Structure formats: structure tokens, C-alpha cells
Amino acid sequence: MTDTKIHVNPGEFVSIVGPSGCGKSTLLNAVAGFLKPTAGSVTVDGEAVNGPSAERGMVFQQYSLFPWKTVRENVEFGLKMKGIDRSKRETSARTLLGLAGLLSFENQYPDSLSGGMKQRVGIIRALAIGPKVLLLDEPFGALDAQTRVIMQQILTNMWQRLKTSVLFVTHDIDEAIFLSDRVYCMTARPGTIKAEVAIPLERPRQQSMMMSSEFLALRRGLMSLIREESLKAMGGEVNDTALQGLGIDLHGQTLADVI
Amino acid sequence: MSQIEMKAPKGHVEVRNFALSYETVTARSRR
Q1: Cβ of A21 under 8 Å from any chain B Cβ?
Q2: Which of A16, A69, A113, A224 would disulfide-bridge A117, Cβ 3.0–4.6 Å?
Q3: Measured between alpha carbons, how far is A162 from A11 in angstroms, rounded to an integer?
Q4: Residues 1-31 of B with CB under 8 A from A
Q5: What's the predicted TM-score (pTM) here?
Q6: Cβ contact (<8 Å) for B15 and A35?
């Protein structure tokens, strides 16, 4: 990665999209404090990021819940580590569980939950510690398409109420447009920021907006930016002309004639 | 004068001139 500049304003929802392997997750890991930059700086509210901190809540694609703890105990974990007393912990956890539609599952164990439910627990567990910024690394990547769409709606509704700063990594352009105030598009290796796109869609966001001409215009723009980079990332032989058949004419031969 | 104390904005993230070498990332994933 080289000469990358991004920012997230307080209370803003910002996404990073780009081809596989461009460094989206690496950038997020640097903001989380898991990686130290070779050059440049990462700051949160003016303070340099030198390592992981409760100020930055992280949600991964794999749910990473504690299987031996109940749903509520998972959400309470960070608060317990901060020394918050039991009744305050329980109240905070139950409020967040209610916000995520999971209050009736508070005493269940993660094994009994669906993927979408587990990830909702993961998100509110990260929110429970009151981070300055929430970092999400392809959180819906392991979910089926229908669940994913519902999770996007739940996340945007939660964010609308909590107004926490969010930095969200995804390869799904629709997801990035639907959720974000701004989207950064990254280049193929060496990864850097290729474009910054403002998303002026009104809030609250509804799934029906994904069919609007405004949404589709944003989608077309981002798709063309990313397609160019994805082709670069896939190597020299794959380009727009070659995709018609990778430039090879078989002159009517079948597989049996070729092998 | 307003009695309301304005809080400083929270959650402003800034990444400046960030660079990370391929070696740094791969060295970390080997650990």
C-alpha cells in the first residue's frame, strides 16, 4: 500500500471498496492498531494509533463470539473488562440486544443462533464498549444474499440511532452505496485511493432506494471504477477484449478436438 | 452565554500518507 489518505468525520459512515487483495482489510487493521504503517500516520481524534484499543470496536467476517458464553454475556464482556458493575452491564447489554432484535435470545448460546444473528451479536458486542469508531471488515461476507440485505437494513437503522463513526470494508458495491455517506474506491496493488464518492441519498435508507435512478447512477460509476482495477488485479491476460473468449479462437473445435 | 458545554467531536479518524510494505504484511501473517 502506498500514499493512502482517508478520513472519517465524527458520526459519519464511510466504506472502502476495491478489488480482492488491494489492501482494504490491511488499511482497516492499521486503523484498528493491529498493524503499524511503514510510513504515514493513523490518528483518532488527533491521537496517534499505536495499538489496539477499546476506542476502536472491530467486527470481523467470522463471528468470533465466545461459544461458552450466552448472547448477553458476550455483549457484556467488554463492559466487564472495563469494570462496569453487573446491573449497569446488564441494562446496557439488554438495550443493545433490543436494538438488534435479539432480546429474546439473551440467554441462548451462539451455537443455537443463525449466521445473521451471530453477526448482530458481534456488532453490538463491539458497540457495547462505546467505541469512538466502529470498524467492520466484510461483516456480512459469510451470509446468504437475502440475510445480507436484511442485515444491511438493521445496521443502517442502528447507525441512524447511535451515530457512531463507522469505517466499513466490503467488496459489495450495492452494500457500500446503501450504507454509506461516502465511499472510497481503492486501486489494485499497490493499493491506494483511486476515488472518493459522496453518497447523497437521503436517510433513513430503505431497500426500495436500490432501484432509484440516483442509486443506479452511483452504482454504474463505482462499478466502472472497480472493474478497471479488478481486471488489473487479475493479471495481464484478462482485459475487456479478451473476456470475449480470452483471445483464443477454437475455429469450431470442441473440447474433444482440443485435448 | 450558553450554559451548555459543547463536547469536542468524537470519532474523527484520519489516515495520512499511509504506506505499508508487502514485507510487513507477509511477515505478520507468517507469525
Answers
A1: no
A2: A113
A3: 9
A4: 8-21, 24-25, 28
A5: 0.89
A6: no
